[in-house]
Amino acid sequence: MKSLRILLPLVGLAGFLSLWEAAPRLGLVNAAFLPPPSVLPAAFWRELSSGAWLEAIRSSLGHYVMGLTVGAALGVGLGIATGMYRPVESLASWVVRLLRPIPGLAWVPFAIIWFGVSPAAAVFIIAVGVFWIVYFAAHGAVRTVDRDLIEVADAFGFRSGPERLLKVLLPAATPGILVGLRTAIGQAWMAVVAAEIFGVPGLGQRMMQASSLLATDIVVIYMLTMAALYGLLDTAFVALQGWLLRWRA
Predict the structure, then answer these.
(1) pLDDT of 11-57, one tens digit each?
(2) Which of 39, 83, 140, 235 is exposed most, by the fewest CB atoms within 10 A?
(3) Which domains does the chain have, with CATH numbers?
(4) H helix intervals, 26-51
(5) 222: CB partners within 8 A, 6+ apart
């Protein structure tokens, strides 16, 4: 049974690649629009040897890390504040209702007006995309902390806001916050493309340049690159999450 669980995904992947290869080779689709996977290694080598691939990754990772850090920090901070204090939640409630439905792409014109076509604009768009996910995760995690824990903390004299936060709320809310952060890691990658397709250097810009030349093999290379980078980051975060929550075992 264990060997079957390992074999079936490999069979599925092999079948997918075979169908993909056959479709353009048999003329079912135009190879200019969907290149067969057999041409991808040569395309990857061209990008790698020219230095474009590594430079695009370096630029995008810089935007990604900065945007994720800013958006997550603001989301966690405001989420905890509104979760802890009802007046703060009431104060922010209509602002949240007003801004939350606005798609991240709708902020692109303002990002360009405020920051120009620059890395700062990309960081802003990514941070906006991340913020709401982390905010609601942190807010919900704090709100669902067991009231008995808070009463026990009061009994032990942890009545001030900072003491209650550090001794009770933050440890209890950490699992929920980490779930939101893991979701934000994926959302931030989607925001990277939105942030860079308008000319900011990085993976998104390179994809748009290639698509304008109908170099779809290059487009696929960068799509797979983003998928691989996300997989690595998600795996690393899961390991970090397990380490941070080892006390629950």
Answers:
(1) 888 888 889 888 888 888 888 888 889 999 999 999 999 999 999 99
(2) 235
(3) 40-248 (1.10.3720.10)
(4) 40-50
(5) 56, 203, 206, 207, 210
